[in-house]
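Side project, low priority. Logging it here so it doesn't get lost.
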Amino acid sequence: MSDERVVPFIEHLVELRKRLVVIVISVVIGMGISWNYSSDLLSFIEKPLSGKTYLTEIKKSAYLKVKELAPAMYTRYKLDQEINAPQKKRPLNYSAPLEPFFIQCKISMLAGFVVVLPIVFYQVWLFIAPGLTRRERRMVVPFVTASSVTFCIGAMFFLVIIWPVIINFSLSYEAEGLQSWFNISAYVNFCLRLILLFGLIFELPVLTLLLARFGIVSYQFLAPKRKYALLASSIISAFHADLITMFVIMIPLYLMYEISIWVAFFFGKKKVPLEDSLPGQSE
């Protein structure tokens, strides 16, 4: 009896190894494709260090509105200095040999992972496909497409919306005698970790859709557990030291759970009424 259980387990491990090998090879190929673009990607990550982001544009528009409606307040608080403040050049620094090279490798690896996302999710699907019905296996294209797209949306949402907020908040502490000096490893590692995290956070509705279509979860199961989801979001985000990063992780994470609830409501597997499921019943 024990041998019968061990054999399927070993087969699952062999299948898992096969899928992981394909994923690793794909990521290495994607890394090679992305290598020449790693400098451009690093420049994009560095943009908030200039201090000019969409937040500064919003602040500028608000100050100009104050100038129009309350010129005395505009002059009193010297808001013109805020508007005309020159951009500072804050270059990243490194302090160890080959440190920029390893950073380039990390950026290229994550970019390569994003490039081959359809292959990665297809391999995940192939691993779980033996346990699915023929009808459920037909969802492979929607699953791979939706998973790849939502991961990219999550990553871009972080880079365009959240990352400038985090860096601007950090730069707001600059003062006379207190200037920023960012290490390239700490800066880029922090950014890449959050890109990956936000990509995974945005996968939650897709995972819920899949589980709901299979009848594993439902709206009735998820909706009453909102308070536990909020607690879990707080615990997950609390692993980041600063309060701002904690909130910018916790809020999207809980919002994805809320979206997942309604995804399960609209697209979940509909339960067949008991009287309709009984044999021999006719209208």
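Brief comment: The chain has one domain: 2-59+96-266.
Revisit when time allows.
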